[in-house]
Structure formats: C-alpha cells, structure tokens
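User: I'm putting together notes for a lab meeting next week and I want to include a structural view of one of the chains we've been expressing. I don't have a solved structure, so I'd like a prediction I can at least talk through. The sequence is below, exactly as it appears in our construct file.
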Amino acid sequence: MDIFQQTFRIGEFARFARVTIKMLRYYDRLGLLRPVAVDPETNYRYYSAEQLPRLNRIIALKDLGFSLDQVAEILEEGFTNEELKGMLKFKRQEIVKQIATEQERLNLLEAHLKQLDGKAEPLRYDVVVRPVAEQLIASVRRVISDHSNEVGSLFDTVETFVAKFNARAKLPPLAIAHHRAEDRVDAEVMVPVDRAITPEPPIQIYRLPAVDQMACVVHHGSYCDLKRAYEAFFEWAAASEVQTAGHTRVVYLRFGATEVGYHLPASFVTDNSEKYVTELQFPIKKVPKNDHSLT
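Assistant: Thanks for the context. Below is the predicted structure for the 295-residue chain, given as structure tokens.
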C-alpha cells in the first residue's frame, strides 16, 4: 500500500491532533517532529497516527514550562525516570520563584492603588525596592544639634581626610541618624572610598553592609521639603505592609559644598538648593502577621 494512503496530510493531522499547521511546520524545522513522508511533487507533509505520542510528549513538556531546546534534549537523550524526575523538581523550583516574584509585583500594585485611593493629584514620589551593594566608606560619627549645620562640617572633615590619600570613590556621600533624643541626633556621615586607607581618629574605615530589600525614595529640591519624602515612604509602607529593618540612609546625589581642601565630581555639586537631589533609603521587611506597626 502507498505510504501516502497510510498517513494524514498536515492539515488533517493538525485537526486530528488539535494543533495548528504552523506549529507542526515549526516543529519540523526544529527537528522535533519530522513528517514521515514528503510528497516530492507537491511538497505536502504527511504524518502518521504513531507520531501522536511524541507530539503529546512535546506539548506536555512545553506546558510544564520547558523550552523547546530542553524538550529536544529530553526526547533525544532518552532520560530515565529518575533523571526526568530531577528535571521536573528543578522546574518546580523555578516556577515557585516565579510565583513569588509575581506575588511581590501584585503586592506593589495593590500598594499603589491604595496610595491613589481618594487622591486627585498625581503622586509626587515613587518608592522603588531594590538591593543596595556593600560599600567601603570613610566615616565620622558625632552627637550634634538636630537643627544645626554641623552635618556639613562633618562632611568637610571626612572629604578632606579622604582627599589626602586621593582615595575617593566616584559615588555620592551619605548619612545615617543612629538615634534622636529631643533636639540632639547621633549622626554619622560617610564618604565612599575606592580602597582601604589607614584610619585616623575620629575617622573610621569600614564596609557598610549590603541590603537586599531597600525601599528608595528620591527627593528633588531643598532639604526643607525632605519630610514629604519621608511621609511618602511611610504611607507606602503602611499600604505595602512592610516595616523598616534598620537605619535610614540619606544619600546626597546632588548637594551644595564649599569644597575647601578637596575636590568633588562636578555632577555632585550645585549652588542652587532647588536642584538638590537626595535619596532616602529604608531597609525593609514584611510586617509579621498581626503586627502592623512601623519601627
């Protein structure tokens, strides 16, 4: 009997197998499912019923999330059940991670909806959660008046010290308020350095730890309005059901400076306070169930 009488033309096989002709042609090009015969006169592709198990295996593996390259490897290598089980377990881990990522994205979306609820004006601040890398820094820490200009003097001290070694990294300076009491603040200012240098009291050299989950808010303009960025974060945190998990970092992306005894990259410095750019960085963690307080 002629082979073409024992087989299905591609359109018939596609309908029979409930797939598209385009898919069968694509699988043919990839070598995943070759037709059993091709009419040399018409170039029609012909498939047999015996090919259905292979086609179903391809579809099943695709539905499990395997790429077509992986499907081809599984079909050609002839993995044992144990080997296939191992691949399925690995794929399960990938899918679990994807679900967690999408759930976090859904949580962020819900938080934005809550922030917009009942508001006519656009949000001024966006909160972005990202990891922050470890930094080697030079720092000085001192208890100062909460309403003084001593922070600028502390930065001058650290920048001048770092300049002696020509060790300043091309990264913005930052500050942390470790503790506040009445009108006093335990402040630490930090300047990134590009290599280890010998500390001299009161200057310390150490590595500021990395943070995996840092909620970041960027404020444009004078420090007088910086409190609005803090308010935006805490509003977002309440809607997102997260709480702070460490000291807030204030990163000075563009700022005013006298530059006496040291030199700063031009992109960092401006003499117009309305052009200041400041990023607030809040280490965060999820609020435990039945605990919706912010620390």
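A couple of points you could mention at the meeting. The chain is about 35% helix and 25% strand. Residues 3-78 form a domain with the Multidrug-efflux Transporter Regulator; Chain: A; Domain 2 fold (CATH 1.10.1660.10).

User: Perfect, that's what I needed.
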